[in-house]
Design a protein that fits this description.
The chain is mainly alpha-helical. It is built from 8 helices and no strands. It has one domain: Globins (Globin-like, Orthogonal Bundle), CATH 1.10.490. Helix content is 60%, strand content 0%.
C-alpha cells in the first residue's frame, strides 16, 4: 500500500458477469436432467453389466432419483438445491460404504452413456459430460 493510494484495488473495474457452468442451460435445464436420470436408472435396471451396481440401491429408486437430479442440477450449474439440503456433495465419502472398483465405475458409466445418448442431443455436450462423468466415476473408486 502506498500513501497516495491507500486502496490498491480502487482502480479495478467491477466484474459484471461471473463465469458459471453453462451446462445446465445447454442441456435444457431441470426437465432434461430429470429425463436423463430416469433413463440412467432404466438402463441400470436392464443392462446385464449393471446388475452389480443395481443391487447397491434400494428396490424403490424414488429417493435416489431425487437426490441424483438435485446433484446433477447443481453440478451442471443450476440452482444449489442439493447443497442447501444435503451439504457438500463429498462424493467419495458418500460412496465409501459401497465397494466401487473398475467394474462398478464402468457399469455406472455404461448406464450414463446410454442415458446421454437417449436424452442429450448436443454431441459436443455429451462428449464433455462423458469426460467429466468418467473422471468423477474413477475418483470415487475405493477398491
Amino acid at each position: 500500500m502506498n500513501a497516495d493510494n491507500p486502496n490498491p484495488y480502487a482502480t479495478l473495474k467491477p466484474v459484471t458477469q461471473v463465469m458459471t457452468n453453462p451446462h445446465f442451460e445447454t442441456i435444457g435445464g431441470e426437465a432434461v436432467i430429470i429425463q436423463l436420470v430416469e433413463k440412467f436408472y432404466f438402463y441400470m435396471n436392464i443392462l446385464p453389466e449393471a446388475a452389480g451396481i443395481r443391487t447397491m440401491h434400494a428396490a424403490d429408486l424414488s429417493h435416489t432419483k431425487k437426490i441424483l437430479v438435485q446433484f446433477l442440477i447443481e453440478w451442471l450449474g443450476g440452482p444449489k438445491i442439493y447443497s442447501s439440503e444435503r451439504g457438500h456433495p463429498s462424493l467419495r465419502k458418500r460412496h465409501m460404504h459401497f465397494p466401487i472398483g473398475e467394474v462398478e465405475s464402468n457399469a455406472w458409466m455404461s448406464c450414463m452413456r446410454h442415458a446421454m445418448e437417449d436424452v442429450v442431443s448436443n454431441a459436443i455436450l455429451r462428449q464433455q459430460l462423458e469426460q467429466s462423468f468418467t473422471k468423477t466415476a474413477n475418483f470415487i473408486r475405493n477398491k
